[in-house]
Design a protein that fits this description.
The chain is of the alpha/beta class. It has 9 helices and 18 strands. Strand 12 and strand 13 form a beta hairpin. Helix 1 runs parallel beside helix 2 and helix 2 packs across helix 3. The C terminus is likely disordered.
């Protein structure tokens, strides 16, 4: 059995939309999710971004070591490496240490300035894997894909899978020389050699080209920007299937600013609606209460619009900086000395400055 997962972003430290405690809890939840994955039977394979940042503390390295030691193959992702020859990051350090201890490495890294494609036949699983880790630029990526396409596949095995860490069909307006983009045309060419192409990097799961191009998606949300159901892929007895490991309907919720629950089982929350400046205090108090009574809550984002702000010509609300908002609210509360005093007290509390 082979289990594929990607983008656990271990060691993550979020500042926006979190409290110090919830940020630490989110980092631990990402680690716990990865540990549950690698405890599964058979070989585990990570398609990149094992770490959230290139360099990490000793504490993070120690916590991640059990994940890497139980993963048979780890591609380096764009968060794991930097485009600078000779720089050694956390993933490479752990792999070198593991090689010294066991005589066998786990990780695949780009050698800067060279195209890369690694081939691995697994007879007992009836599959042939070819892996391209993150490389420095699009030109090297294209060369690596051509190298992968020319790989001699042992067709005695049941299938061949190409493993990548890149974008799929990235819009030209967002593409850069270092963003690494697999186009549909290139994917179709590669599928002449491979049965499937499986991608890490993009956090939202998706399938293209009759389900043969698989964007696996990350293991759980890292914030409000990548909310979706999360999954792993399992290859067993020649059959590829998916298993959900995080459920959007249970882990994410949206609430109106004037109808916030006292507590919630959701882990990620978005607050919506249109709020009067005079209601900001009540909303803030409700959010504070929800934070205190919801131990599993990781992120809260306030998307409620403030009434009275002038719209731009395209209809969007003018963005107000956090520095300006207290002044707006304070002016509205000047007619209520008791509320104003309470507001001044609340905004000084650390757990209300979560951003």
């Amino acid at each position: 059995m082979l289990t594929f997962y990607t983008d656990p972003h271990l060691g993550l430290s979020r500042a926006g939309n979190t409290t110090p405690r919830s940020s630490e809890n989110l980092r631990q939840a990402l680690l716990d999710q990865a540990l549950q994955i690698v405890k599964r039977p058979g070989r585990k394979i990570c398609l990149g971004d094992m770490f959230d940042t290139f360099s990490n503390s000793e504490e993070v390295l120690e916590s991640v070591l059990p994940v890497i030691s139980q993963t048979a193959l780890v591609l380096s992702g764009n968060h794991d490496v930097v485009n600078q020859a000779g720089k050694v990051g956390s993933l490479q350090m752990l792999d070198r240490a593991y090689q010294r201890l066991t005589g066998a490495g786990h990780c695949l890294f780009a050698y800067f300035g060279k195209p890369m494609a690694f081939s691995w036949a697994i007879p007992e699983e009836d599959v042939h894997l070819v892996a391209v880790p993150h490389v420095a630029n699009q030109s090297l990526f294209e060369e690596s894909l051509n190298t992968a396409k020319d790989t001699k596949i042992n067709r005695g095995h049941g299938g061949a899978i190409l493993l990548l860490h890149c974008n799929y069909d990235l819009s030209e307006q967002w593409a850069t020389e270092t963003s690494l983009n697999l186009t549909p045309d290139k994917a179709a060419q590669l599928l002449e050699t491979f049965d499937y192409i499986m991608l890490g990097h993009e956090h939202a799961p998706a399938e293209y080209l009759d389900g043969r191009v698989i964007v696996l998606g990350n293991t759980m949300p890292t914030g409000l920007g990548d909310i979706s159901d999360k999954r792993i892929a399992i290859l067993e007895n020649g059959q590829l299937r998916f298993e959900q490991i995080w459920n959007e309907s249970k882990g994410y919720a949206e609430y109106a600013h004037d109808n916030l629950p006292e507590s919630t089982e959701a882990e990620f929350i978005r607050v919506k609606g249109e709020v009067d400046p005079g209601e900001m205090l009540n909303m803030t108090r409700s959010i504070q209460q929800m934070w205190r009574r919801s131990p599993n809550l990781y992120c809260v984002k306030v998307d409620a619009r403030i009434k009275g702000l002038a719209p731009t010509t395209d209809g969007e609300t003018v963005t107000q900086s956090l520095a300006q908002l207290p002044a707006i609210i304070r002016k509205e509360l000047e007619r209520h000395p008791a509320l104003l005093a309470l507001w001044d007290q609340l905004i000084q509390e650390e757990d209300l400055t979560h951003g």
